[in-house]
């Protein structure tokens, strides 16, 4: 009788790329719940819109590229991109903002480069940066966390939330407010202590801004779950958080009006934890080796601080990640691990004259 | 109770923990099979040159009898594993990943299993090392762990690199395989005795270690018991695949790494599989040739899963059938382990020296790998790689066939353990990519060696040809010099002959001078001369005419093409000129030189026109009359030259010479002027003109001398 001929190994671990993507989706759940708790239906609408748009965009390009659509959609990578972008966008953002962002992420940043595994830049962050540069007003209109809403106000109902998103009703202003990083940047004339006293966003918070500290804690939790599942190694996230912590400790200067902000402000507000565990851990656009990942993560951490404190944008995870995406191949060339039986690690670019 | 002491071990980087699946085959004791009717012995069951048959079809052989002998050092003999008759020596499918065929000796067993005589040796310490190595080699022993490296060769160490560590590999890190586990349990004494034998052969290394993974506590206990107080360490280390790889086990036990591209002996380390040690011991102690081995027969497609003491050459089908193989459940047959073993093309291949395991899995047990997805560079493979390679980069460059990059990423340090493929969430057959890339690089290198060789050969040939050419040239020069000398001598003698009466005899005496005289006479034949010149002139004229016509006809857009043709024509004219100049040194120079001048003129006018045409193509039309004029002038000059030659042919020698002299004087004068002009213009023809002038001057002097001689 004839037997199947296959190359060794004949055994495989049960995990698949699809599984990894599903873990990531699962790990975003705490962050999603906390965001919804503080900001209402807006986050869910973002997520739904982004997911639909991502699947449609991916299917469209796959059809144009004559690839089996269902097979590729099943790997879940488009959904991961969509959800990460949706969680980073302001709740109640106009529908077209989400659509443009997601379509750019999937079509421009991912499929035009060849699809999953070939994109040099993190698709979600490309989408985010395109939106941030093109529509700065919409992108910086975050809503007020529900615990800070004044007397008669409450979070919009699902119906009014949908109305907000799809018709752009003029009630937007009623709900919009600054993020902690925004606030900190606009109040630069004040001592850190004064900023914290004057604004309920800080004074009502434990560490780094009402709502935001919990959002970040939730993403940290999800990240730890992924670390436990070995979806990625600790090198990138730890390096990024350590570099960011180090920078904020170095430039805190006791809280003067020139201070860069506290350690906690930097670690637990804005997109820090989402970036550390869900964005820079994207293996496709990151560095390859563990040593490379440490350098990559540390680079992101430093850039996040630099752009937040000395740059024009309140938050900086997206820019920092894209800049380091640029540097990833360069890092790879110089961080090839030392192979067994070799005295030292060699550069990948050395030439063979012999 | 003896004091247990833990032996320090190191960790390897990477590694994986696949399901061990070792219990299935350890439940039953070691078994033996019925003797198969037909046994097949491939001549190549080891690394190195295939053995050479020493039996013929029809020969009766006994168990343990040599049926094929080693060819060279990197080879081992093959022995019959039972008694019977050689029924064929033919190509059969080999147990190899490729499913290729190879020469095999086929034995029809007689079922009696009669043994050949064996020479026992009670105390091998009385023998010298070379005798022991020869015994091991003659017993056909090659690494039983799976590689099949000739054991005696591995034990044969060089004087300048002494071995200080002997490691016995009882790791058996691959899932499913328990052959060595069973061996260590059932033959612990033999394992220790074999270890001692190998230690003796290697000159009693400082460290002798038996390494066993901690998932075999009973084997560890058995070996420790057998070791007793002997100076043998038993190193126990955590279970992790691929700890049993030679390089990995060396790292675990010594903390050292085998340098890339080197063998363990470079570190003073020799490693042998425990099964090999037992076989070597039995070969030396009892004179047993390698005729059987322990093979794990396992998989859910079998009724009984166990270890078998199987005769080498036994067809896998026989092995399976005697263990209740259900072919309907199976889709795959693997020889070796699930990580590094290979899929068998069919069950009609024999068990060989390296067959440590046969897996007949059910479909559910080892489902085919799902189709590969895109690599997301998750890096799990890099985490798993025991050689600290970057498998995802290797995959990327293997796919792109960037071989230099692959070598930069140390592809050749890949041991093909399969850990990367095992963990890959996209189920990419990484190892397959590496194997194929390695093959392609090796082939490329072979081709490079070949082409380098060819280039060397070509260059050497060129050099040789050049040298031959130089030698020829040197000879030619020597001949020319000799001829000139002879000419000089002849001239001197001729001069002498005018004063002495016996001159003609002297000329006759000199054959070179005589030959020269003959040639000269021939050259001086005016009719032949004229005919030759006319032919040359005709062809030159017609060529020039054609060119003129074409030049006139040429349109502006064809100028370039025409220029090229003109250039070619010029080259030909140059050639003709040189020939004619050479000719002009002979005795009838006037006409020739005239012709040369004429041609020079023509050439110059053509050149000028070509230049004009490139400068301003629209002038072509106006050039037409000028070209026609030149043509007329040329024809007229040729006519004049012909007439002159005719008249000269009718002159007396003295008159001839005088006329020549006058003509030469004029020509020398003209040539001088021309040269001056050329020098002033910095023309590239200066050299040619100067040579021409020199020749002419020489000729002039010569003619004057001749005239003087005649007039005397």
Structure description:
The complex is a heterodimer of chains A (354) and B (712). The model of chain A has no long low-confidence stretch (mean pLDDT 85). In chain A, helix 6 packs across helix 7. The longest helix of chain A has 23 residues, at 42-64. Chain A contains 19 helices and two strands. Chain A is globular. In chain A, 60% of the residues lie in helices and 1% in strands. With 354 residues, chain A is mainly alpha-helical. Chain B has 712 residues and is α/β, with parallel strands linked by helices. Chain B is built from 21 helices and 17 strands. Chain B has helices at residues 129-138, 151-155, 179-186, 188-201, 217-227, 246-254, 274-286, 316-321, 380-384, 391-399, 403-408, 419-423, 430-499, 503-509, 511-524, 526-553, 559-584, 589-615, 620-649, 653-681, 686-711, and strands at residues 31-32, 38-42, 52-53, 60-61, 66-69, 78-79, 84-93, 101-109, 165-169, 207-213, 233-237, 269-273, 292-298, 306-311, 334-335, 342-343, 357-359. In chain B, the strands form four sheets. Chain B has a six-stranded mixed sheet. The model of chain B is unreliable at 615-623 (pLDDT under 50). The chains are: A mainly alpha (354), B alpha/beta (712). Chains A and B meet through helix 1 of A and strand 16, helix 9, helix 11, helix 12 and helix 13 of B.
Short description:
The complex is a heterodimer of chains A (354) and B (712). With 354 residues, chain A is mainly alpha-helical.
Properties at a glance:
heterodimer; A: 354 residues; mainly alpha; two-stranded antiparallel sheet; 19 helices; 2 strands; globular; B: 712 residues; alpha/beta; 50% helix
């Amino acid at each position: 009788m004839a037997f199947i001929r296959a190359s060794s190994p004949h055994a495989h671990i049960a995990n698949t790329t699809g599984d990894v993507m599903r873990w990531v989706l699962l790990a975003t759940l705490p962050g999603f719940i906390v965001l919804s708790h503080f900001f209402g239906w807006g986050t869910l609408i973002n997520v739904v819109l982004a997911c639909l748009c991502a699947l449609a965009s991916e299917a469209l390009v796959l059809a144009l590229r004559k690839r089996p659509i269902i097979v590729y959609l099943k790997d879940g990578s488009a959904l991961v991109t969509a959800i990460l972008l949706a969680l980073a966008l302001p709740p109640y953002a106009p529908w077209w903002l989400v659509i443009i962002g997601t379509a750019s992420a999937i079509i421009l940043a991912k499929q035009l480069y060849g699809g999953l595994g070939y994109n040099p830049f993190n698709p979600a962050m490309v989408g985010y940066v395109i939106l941030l540069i093109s529509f700065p007003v919409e992108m910086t209109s975050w809503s007020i966390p529900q615990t800070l809403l004044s007397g008669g106000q409450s979070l919009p109902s699902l119906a009014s939330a949908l109305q907000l998103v799809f018709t752009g009703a003029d009630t937007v202003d009623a709900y919009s407010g600054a993020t902690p990083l925004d606030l900190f940047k606009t109040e630069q004339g004040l001592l850190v202590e004064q900023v914290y006293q004057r604004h309920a966003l800080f004074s009502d918070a434990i560490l780094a801004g009402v709502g935001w500290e919990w959002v970040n804690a939730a993403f940290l939790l999800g990240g730890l779950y992924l670390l436990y599942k070995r979806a990625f190694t600790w090198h990138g996230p730890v390096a990024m958080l350590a570099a960011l912590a180090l920078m904020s400790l170095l430039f805190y200067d006791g809280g003067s009006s020139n201070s860069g902000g506290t350690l906690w402000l930097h670690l637990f507000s804005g997109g820090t934890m989402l970036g550390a565990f869900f964005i820079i851990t994207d293996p496709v656009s990151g560095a390859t080796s563990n040593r490379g990942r440490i350098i990559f993560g540390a680079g992101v951490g430093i850039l996040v601080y630099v752009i937040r404190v000395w740059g024009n944008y309140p938050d900086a995870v997206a820019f920092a990640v894209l800049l380091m995406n640029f540097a990833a191949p360069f890092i790879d060339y110089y961080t090839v691990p030392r192979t067994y039986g070799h005295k030292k690690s060699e550069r990948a670019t050395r030439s063979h004259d012999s | 109770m003896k004091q247990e002491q833990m032996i320090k071990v190191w960790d390897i980087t990477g590694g994986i923990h696949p399901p061990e699946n070792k219990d299935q085959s350890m439940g039953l004791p070691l078994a033996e099979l019925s003797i198969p009717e037909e046994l097949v012995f491939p001549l190549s069951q080891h690394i190195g040159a295939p053995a050479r048959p020493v039996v013929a079809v029809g020969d009766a052989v006994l168990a343990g009898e040599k049926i094929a002998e080693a060819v060279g050092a990197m080879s081992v003999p093959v022995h019959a594993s039972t008694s019977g008759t050689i029924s064929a020596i033919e190509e059969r499918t080999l147990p190899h990943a490729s499913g290729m065929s190879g020469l095999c000796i086929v034995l029809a067993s007689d079922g009696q299993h009669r043994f050949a005589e064996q020479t026992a040796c009670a105390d091998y310490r009385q023998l010298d090392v070379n005798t022991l190595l020869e015994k091991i080699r003659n017993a056909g022993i090659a690494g039983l762990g799976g590689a099949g490296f000739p054991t005696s060769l591995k034990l044969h160490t060089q004087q300048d690199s002494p071995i200080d560590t002997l490691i016995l590999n009882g790791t058996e890190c691959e899932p499913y395989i328990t052959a060595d586990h069973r061996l260590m349990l059932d033959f612990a004494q033999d394992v220790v005795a074999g270890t001692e034998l190998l230690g003796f052969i290697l000159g009693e290394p400082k460290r002798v270690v038996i390494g066993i993974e901690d998932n075999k506590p009973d084997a560890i206990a058995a070996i420790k018991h057998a070791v007793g107080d002997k100076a043998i360490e038993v190193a126990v280390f955590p279970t992790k695949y691929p700890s049993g790889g030679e390089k990995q086990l060396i790292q675990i036990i010594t903390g050292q790494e085998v340098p890339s591209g080197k063998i363990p002996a470079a570190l003073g380390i020799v490693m042998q599989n425990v099964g090999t040690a037992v076989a070597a011991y039995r070969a030396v102690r009892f004179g047993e040739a390698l005729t059987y081995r322990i093979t794990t027969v396992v998989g859910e497609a079998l009724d009984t899963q166990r270890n078998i003491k199987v005769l080498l050459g036994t067809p896998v089908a026989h092995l399976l059938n005697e263990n209740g193989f259900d072919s309907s459940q199976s889709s795959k047959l693997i020889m070796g382990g699930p990580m590094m073993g290979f899929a068998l093309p069919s069950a009609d291949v024999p068990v060989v020296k390296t067959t440590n395991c046969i897996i007949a899995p059910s479909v559910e047990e080892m489902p085919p790998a799902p189709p590969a997805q895109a690599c997301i560079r998750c890096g799990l493979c890099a985490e798993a790689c025991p050689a600290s390679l970057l498998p995802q980069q290797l995959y990327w460059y293997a796919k792109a066939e960037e071989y230099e990059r692959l070598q930069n990423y140390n592809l050749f340090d890949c041991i093909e353990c399969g850990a990367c493929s095992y963990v890959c969430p996209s189920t990419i057959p990484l190892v397959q990519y590496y194997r194929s890339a390695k093959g392609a690089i090796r082939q490329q290198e072979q081709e490079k060696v070949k082409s380098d060789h060819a280039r060397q050969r070509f260059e050497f040939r060129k050099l040789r040809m050049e040298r031959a050419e130089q030698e020829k040239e040197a000879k030619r020069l020597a001949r020319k010099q000799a001829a000139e000398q002879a000419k000089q001598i002849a001239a001197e003698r001729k001069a002498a002959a005018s004063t002495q009466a016996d001159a003609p005899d002297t000329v006759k005496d000199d054959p070179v001078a005589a030959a020269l005289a003959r040639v000269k006479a021939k050259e001086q034949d005016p009719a032949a001369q004229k005919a030759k010149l006319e032919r040359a002139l005709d062809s030159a004229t017609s060529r020039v005419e054609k060119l003129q016509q074409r030049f006139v006809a040429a349109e502006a857009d064809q100028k370039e093409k025409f220029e090229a043709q003109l250039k070619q024509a010029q080259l030909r004219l140059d050639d003709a000129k040189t020939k004619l100049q050479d000719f002009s040194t002979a005795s009838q120079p006037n006409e020739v030189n005239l012709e040369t001048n004429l041609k020079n003129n023509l050439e110059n006018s053509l050149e000028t026109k070509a230049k004009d045409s490139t400068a301003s193509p629209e002038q072509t039309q106006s050039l037409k009359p000028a070209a026609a004029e030149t043509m007329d002038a040329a024809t007229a000059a040729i006519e004049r030259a012909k007439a002159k030659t005719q008249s000269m042919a009718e002159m007396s020698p003295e008159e001839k010479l005088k006329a020549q002299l006058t003509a030469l004087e004029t020509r020398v004068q003209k040539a001088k002027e021309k040269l001056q002009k050329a020098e002033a213009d910095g023309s590239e023809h200066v050299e040619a003109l100067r040579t021409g002038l020199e020749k002419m001057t020489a000729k002039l002097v010569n003619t004057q001398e001749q005239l003087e001689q005649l007039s005397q």
